Fold:
Amino acid sequence: MAGATREGAGVATLSDVARRAGVSPATASRVINGSSKPVTDELRERVLRAVADLQYVPNAHAQLLARSHRGAVGVIVHDVSDPYFSEITRGLQRVATDRGRLLMICNSYRDPERELEYVELLRGQQVAAIILAGSGYHDPDFTRLLNGKLAAYEATGGRVAVIGRHEHSGDAVMPDNRAGARLLGEEIRRLGHERVGVVAGPKMLTTTTDRLTGLREAFAAHHRELPEHRIRYAAFDRDTGAAATASLLDAEPELTAIAALNDSMAIGALSLLRSRGIAVPGQVSVFGFDDMPMARDVTPALTTVRLPLVELGTRAMALALDAGSAKPRVESLAAELVRRDSSAPAKGMARY
Amino acid sequence: MAGATREGAGVATLSDVARRAGVSPATASRVINGSSKPVTDELRERVLRAVADLQYVPNAHAQLLARSHRGAVGVIVHDVSDPYFSEITRGLQRVATDRGRLLMICNSYRDPERELEYVELLRGQQVAAIILAGSGYHDPDFTRLLNGKLAAYEATGGRVAVIGRHEHSGDAVMPDNRAGARLLGEEIRRLGHERVGVVAGPKMLTTTTDRLTGLREAFAAHHRELPEHRIRYAAFDRDTGAAATASLLDAEPELTAIAALNDSMAIGALSLLRSRGIAVPGQVSVFGFDDMPMARDVTPALTTVRLPLVELGTRAMALALDAGSAKPRVESLAAELVRRDSSAPAKGMARY
DNA sequence: AGGTGTCAGGTAAGCGCTTTCCTGACAGCC
DNA sequence: GGCTGTCAGGAAAGCGCTTACCTGACACCT
Structure:
C-alpha cells in the first residue's frame, strides 16, 4: 500500500512517475528520453518500472514547448482520396517515415481559404516543414496572402516546399505539365485527329492552364488550333469529366478525340462514351493525363501522360527536410507519354 | 521608429504582441481568442494591429498545454491511398470538419507495431479521440497490448472508436462483412458456380476470416464446400490479387468463378484474366468486395458487395465526438450485393 | 590531511500561453 | 462626502516538460 498516491486522477505526468520512482523529475526525464546524461542502472530501472505501471506517455505539447523543437511535418493537398494526391502522399510519407517524422495530412478540397487556414494551423503546431501539393490558383490576392504567411513561417525557421506551384519563390518540385501536354498534343496530331475536344480542369488552377498551353503549342507547331469552343472546364473528377464529354459531343458529334486533362476525367469520358455506345478507340480516341494506377485497369486501358507522382513526393520531402540553401532549388520532373489502347489513328488515317 | 523592438528574432510570441500594443499579455490573450472578458475597443484595436504587424500565430502547443484542452482527432488507417480507406477517411473528415476539428491521418501500413506507436503518439498529442479504422489482427498479444494502451487513454478522458474491429470493447462501427459475404456466396451459388477460387486477404486480418466465414456459410447452406486448396491469401492489393489468381488458375484451370475478398484484388484478377485471354464473364466470373468507386469503371464492371464506406466514417466520427455512454455503442452497417457485368451463370446454367 | 576533479542527481528557470484573482478607477447611492 | 458595487485591465500562478547549473559524495592526488 506504501506506494499508493492519487493516481488515476487524470493523466499521469512526469512528476507522478518521478514520485513513484522516488527520483527527481529531471532524472525521470533523462531516463525516459535517453539523455546523454548518465543515470545509474538502479534508478533507471525504477523509473522504467514506474513508467510501465502508470502507462505514462509524455505530453507531446509540453515536450515540444520545452524543447521548442519542431517535430512533425504537414502537407496540404487538394484531396487525398484523389489518386493523384494519394500517390504523391505516399512518396512524402516514405521519406518522412525514414527520417522519423510524423506526417500530418490536410485536405483543402481546393478551397484557397481553407488552405490559408491550414497554413496557420500548421504554423501554430510548430511543424518543421509545410509542403503544399497541387496546383496553385489564378488569384493574385490569394497568392500574395499565402506567400506572406509562408514568408513569415520561413522567417522563423520553418521550411516550405511546394509541388507543382509556380507562385512560390522557394524550393519546389515541378512536374513538367507543359512539356507533357506538348507530348500529348504531338501524339494526337500524329494520329491525325483534327477535331479534338478538350476536357480541362478548373479554370482557376494553374495546372489547367499549363496543360492547355502545352497542348496548344503542339497544335500551333502544325499550324492547327485548339478552338475555345472545343474546350470544357470541369472539376478534375470523374463525374464532371463525363458531363463535360457529353456537352462536347452534343455540340459537335463528329469529334474523333477527347483529351482529358487528368485521368479521372478521362475515365469519366470513357464511361460516358460507353453508355452512348460509342466505340473507343474505334470511333473516338481518349487521352488522359497523370497515369494514375487505375489508368491501366480501365478498358480500354488509357493512353495518358505519366507523371512520376511518388517521386514528386519523395523529392519534395527531401527538399523540405534537408537544410535549406540560400537560393531556391527547383527540380523539374519530366513527363512521359504512355500509349495504351484508348487511342488510335483518326478515321482515314489507317496507314498509321 | 518608436515601436522598433527586437522583432524578427524568432517567432513572435504573445508578449511581443502585448508589448507592441502596450498592454499586458492577459489582455492580448483575451482579445486574440475572444474571451468572455470585455476589453475596450481602443485596446482591442491596438492588439489586433500588433497581431497583424507581427504576423503573430499562437503557439498551439503552448495553448493546448495551458488549457489542457484536447483539440485534434487522430485516425489510424492501414493505408489512405487504398480507396477503401480514402472513402472512410472522407467520411471521418466531413464530420470532423463540421465540428471544427483537425483530423490527423496516420498510416500503419498494416504493421501492428507501428499502430501501437501511433496510438502512443496521438495520446501524447492529447488528441480528443483516436479512431482505428480497418481490420484487426489475429494476434492475442498485440490485441492485449493495444487494448491496454487504449484503456489507459480512455481512462484519462480520451475517446476511442473503431471501424470494423471486434477486439475492441468500446464504441464501434461494424461493416457486416460476414453477412455481405453470405450474400455474395448465395449469388455465386445461384449462378451455378461449382468450382470457385477465392482470393482472400492476409490471413492475419479478421476481415479476411469474417468474409471467408460468410462465404463458407452460404456454401454450407447448399451442402457445398469451399475447399482450402481453392483459397489463396494475398495482400489485399491489386498485384498480389493478380498473382493469387494466376496461382489458382495454374492449379485448377477449370475454375468458373473467382471471388476476391476486396475490389483491388478483383481488379488484379480481371487484369490477369485479360492477359491470359480468358473471357470475363464468358469463361470465368469475377466477384469483388467493398464497391470502391473504381469498381464501376473497370471492364467488365465489377459485381461486388457494397459497403457504405463513407458512412462508416461519418458514424465513427460521430460516435467518437459525442459524449461517450456507459455502455459501448456498436452500430452495424449492412452490406449489399451489386450485380454488374463481371458475373454470369456458370457454363451449362444458361437458363439463368 | 587538504585540495581537486569527477560525476550522479537535484534544483529551478523557463518554453508560450490561459485564467484566476486582485487592483484601482469610477459611478451611483444614502 | 464616504461607501459600496461594478468593471476594465494587470499580476502571477501554473500547464508538463527540458536543461543549464549547482551540490554533495567520493576517489585520487601531492
Chain A has three domains: 14-66, 71-175+310-334, 177-307. Residues 1-8 of chain A have pLDDT under 50 and may be disordered. Chain A touches chain B through 50 residues (CB under 8 Å).
